[in-house]
Amino acid sequence: MIRKLTVLAAISVLAACSAPGNNANDPATNTEAASMTLIDRALQISAPVAEQRPVTIEQLGRTRVDEYGWLRDDNWQDVMRDPSVLQSDIRAHLEAENAYYEAVMSPTEALQERIFQEIRGRIREDDSSVPERDGEFEYYTRYREGGQYPIYARRPVDPTTPEEDVEQILLDGDAEAEGIEYLDFGNVDHSPDHRWLAYGVDTRGSEYYEIRIRDLLTGEDVGVLTDESTGDFAWANDSSTLFWVWRDANGRSKRVYRQERGSAASELIYDEADDGFFVNVGKTEGDTYIVIGTAGHTTSEVRLIDADNPTSDAILVAARETDVEYSLTETGDGFYILTNLDGAVDFQVMRAPIDAPQRENWEAVIPHRPGTLINGLLGFRNWMVRSERENALPRIVVRNLESGEEHTIAFEEEAYSLGIDAGYEFNTDVMRFSYESPSTPEETYDYDMATRERDLRKRQEIPSGHNPEDYVVRRIMAPAHDGEMIPVTILYHRDTPVDGSAPLMLYGYGSYGITIPAAFRVTPLSLVDRGMIYAIAHIRGSQARGYGWYLDGKLENKINTFRDFISAGEALIEQGFTARGNMVAYGGSAGGLLVGAAINMQPDLFAGAIAAVPFVDVINTMSDPSLPLTPPEWPEWGNPIEDPQAYDTIAEYSPYDNIAVIDYPHVLATAGLTDPRVTYWEPAKWTARLRATRSDNGLTLMRTNMGAGHGGASGRFDSLRETAENWAFALMTVGLADEEVAELATAAE
C-alpha cells in the first residue's frame, strides 16, 4: 500500500501515482494505484493535528471543556483591520490546514479549472443592468470584458447633440481594485442634483467602509467622510448633507451622523444604546424623509427627518415594542405601514398621513390573513405594490390608490422567484419586476400598472448556451417528523434517471426568516449537467410558509430546522431521487450550522458535507457579548449567559459541542480571516475537534481565505473559483469526479 504522506510531499507524490511509467517494474503497484479513487488517494495524506489546550468553562451550573479555544485571537478586532497581526501559532495552524487542503484537492485542479470555465462561460462578461431613469439621466451598472468589478455609469435621457449622447463613468470598480487584494462597494448613490457621488469602500473584507465623495464634473474624489461606517448613507435633498452609519470597534452599527459634504466635522444624530439593535439609514420613496431605522431580529423602531430640512429634529413614528415590527412605504396617498402589530403573524398593512405618521394615526387597510405572508411594499404616487408568499410561492399584487382596486401578476411554473425594483421615479405608472426559476434565466420586465402590459427589458444571456427544456424543475412536499409539510425545490437534467441512482446535493439555510428563492443560478448547472440532482429544502426558520414557519424554527424550536433538513433528505430518498449515503449537504453561515447539526444527527444520510463560513460554535459565540452579532442575535438563538433553558437548547444542537465518536461523511469547511459575522475560529475549532473525534478516517478539510471576509473572494470571477473548488469536492465525495479527472489527466499527457 502507499504509505502515509506528509502535507509537503503530497502534491508531488500524488502526481507520481498517476504518472505514466511509475514503478514500471512493479505491475501490481501500477494496478493498485490505477484502481484507487480520488478519496482513497486523499486518505493517504496526513492531516494537521491541532494542539489541544483544554480550558474548562463553568456557566449557569453547567460545565464544558474547550480544547481549541486558543485559536481565537484575543486581538481579533485588530485582525479584522490588519490581518498581519494574527498570532503566529494561529497563523501557522491555518496555513497548515490550507496546505493540507491543497494537497488533497490537487488532483482535481484540472477539474476545478473546467468547472470554473463552465460557470464563467454562462456569464456575459460585458453584462449591464437595465438603466433606471432619474430626471435627466439614466443610471446603470455594467462590466467590461474580463472585468471583475462593476462600473457605475450614466447617460443623458434626451441628449440634444451627439456630443451629449455619451456615457459618463462615475465609478470604475476595476480601476479602484488595482493593487489591492479585496474590494467591496457599499452604497453607491448620486446626489439629488446629480453633481456628486457618494460611495462606500471596504478593502479588507471586515465590513468597515470608507465613505468617499466624488465630484462628477471633474471625476475626482474630494474627500472622505469616515473610514468607520457600514457603507450605509443617504443624501438630503440639498445635495450637500449626508447621513451615515457608524460601526463600533465590535463591528456593530450603532450611530447615525449628519455631515456636510465638504466638512471634516460630523454631528451625532442618533446613538443606539442597546447592543441588541442595529441602525440603518435610508430615504422614503417620494424623497420626503430621511429614515433612521433601528431593529433587533423581531423588533423595530423608525425615526424620520425632513429631507428638505436636514437639520430638523427627528420624528419618532412608534416606540419600540418587543416583537413588534413595522416599516413605512411612501405613496401619494400617505404612508403605508407593514406591521405585525396586534398579533398579525403574517403581517397586515395600515395607513397614516405623510405629515402625521405616528402610531396613533395608523388605520387598517389590508387585514392579516393567516398563511399569506406580506413580505414587502413598494410605493408610487398613485400605486402601492406588495409582494406576498403563500405555500412557498411568491406573487405580486398591485393596488390602485384612487379606486382601491387590486390585481395580481400571474405566473405559471411549478417553482419560481420574483423580485420588485423601486427605481428612482415616484410619479410613474411603470414598475419593474424580475422573474426566474431554477431552469429559466432571469427576465426583467417594465410593467404598466394601468394597462397591465409587460415590456421585456432584458433576458439573462447565457453565452455558452442554455436550453430550459433540458432541465426539469419539481416541487415536492416532504413530511416532517411532526406532520408538517416541507417544500423542496428540485432541479435535474432531463436525462438524469429518477430511480435512486443519482447523487444529490441538498442545500438549506433556515434561519433569521430568510427564505431561499427558487431562482436561476449558473453555478449548480455544473453539478446538474454531470448527473447530480440539486435540491433546496425550504425548512422552518425561513418564511417559506409564512412568518409562523420562521417562529417554529427559532429559539426553543430551533431543532425543527435540522429535523426538517433531514426529513427533506429522507423524502428525496423515498421518492427515488437519490439513495442514502449518496447526498452532499451544503449550506453557508447559519446554513453551515444546519450542515454541522445534520451530520451530527444523521451522518449516514450523506457522502459529503460542505459548510461554508459555518456558524458551528454556538454556545461559545452566544456567550461572548463582545462579538459583533452576539447581543443582536439573542432573540434568534437565546441568551445562554442568563437563561438556563436557552443554554440547554443550544447545547442540544450546537455542532461543535455535539461531535461524537461516530462515522461522519467527508467534510469541507471554509473560512475568511477577516469575517466579522462568523469568525474564522469557528470552522477552525470545529474541524480540529471533528478530525480528532470521528471514528472513521474520512476527510476533514478546511480552507481559509487569508485576505477576505464572510463573502469570500470579492471579484466576480475569483469567487467562482471558490465555488469550483467546492463543486470538485462534492463530485469527489459521490464518485462523479474520478473518471473525469482521469480523462483530463490523459488529455494533458
Shape estimate: globular
Strand order of the largest sheet: 30-31-33-32-34-35-36-37
Helix content: 10-25%
Number of strands: 37
Summed over residues and divided by their number, the pLDDT gives a mean of 93
List the total number of helices.
17
CATH architecture of the domain at 39-56 and 72-121 and 467-748: 3-Layer(aba) Sandwich
Main sheet characteristics: 8 strands, mixed
**Low-pLDDT residue spans:** 1-31
| Helical/strand content category | alpha+beta
Beta-strand percentage range: 25-35%
Q: CATH class of the domain at 39-56 and 72-121 and 467-748, please?
A: Alpha Beta
What is the CATH homologous superfamily assignment of the domain at 39-56 and 72-121 and 467-748? Alpha/Beta hydrolase fold, catalytic domain
Q: What is the end-to-end distance? A: 25 Å
Q: What Rg do the Cα atoms give?
A: 27 Å
Describe the structure.
The relative contact order is 0.10. 22% of the residues lie in helices and 32% in strands. With 749 residues, it is α+β, with helices and mostly antiparallel strands. The strands form 8 sheets. It has an 8-stranded mixed beta sheet, sandwiched between helices. A 7-stranded antiparallel beta sheet has the order 7-8-9-10-11-12-13, with no helix packed on it. A 4-stranded antiparallel beta sheet has the order 3-4-5-6. The protein has 17 helices and 37 strands. A hairpin with a 4-residue loop joins strand 15 and strand 16.
Fold topology:
Layout: H1 7-18, H2 27-35, H3 38-42, E1 55-59, E2 62-66, H4 76-81, H5 88-105, H6 109-121, E3 132-134, E4 137-142, E5 151-156, E6 168-172, H7 173-176, E7 184-190, E8 196-202, E9 209-215, E10 220-235, E11 241-247, E12 253-260, E13 266-271, E14 278-283, E15 289-295, E16 300-306, E17 315-318, E18 326-331, E19 334-339, E20 348-352, E21 363-366, E22 372-379, E23 383-390, E24 393-400, E25 406-409, E26 417-421, E27 430-436, E28 443-448, E29 453-459, E30 471-479, E31 485-493, E32 504-507, H8 525-528, E33 533-537, H9 547-551, H10 559-574, E34 583-588, H11 590-601, E35 606-612, H12 618-622, H13 630-637, H14 644-653, E36 666-672, H15 681-693, E37 700-705, H16 718-733, H17 738-748
Parallel strand pairs: 32-33, 32-34, 34-35, 35-36, 36-37
Antiparallel strand pairs: 1-2, 3-4, 4-5, 5-6, 7-8, 8-9, 9-10, 10-11, 11-12, 12-13, 14-15, 15-16, 16-17, 18-19, 19-20, 20-21, 22-23, 23-24, 24-25, 26-27, 27-28, 28-29, 30-31, 31-33
Helix pairs in contact: 1-5, 6-16, 10-11
Domain Peptidase S9 prolyl oligopeptidase catalytic: 520-733
InterPro entries: AB_hydrolase_fold, Pept_S9_AS, Pept_S9A_N, Peptidase_S9_cat, Peptidase_S9A, Serine_Peptidase_S9A
Family: Belongs to the peptidase S9A family.
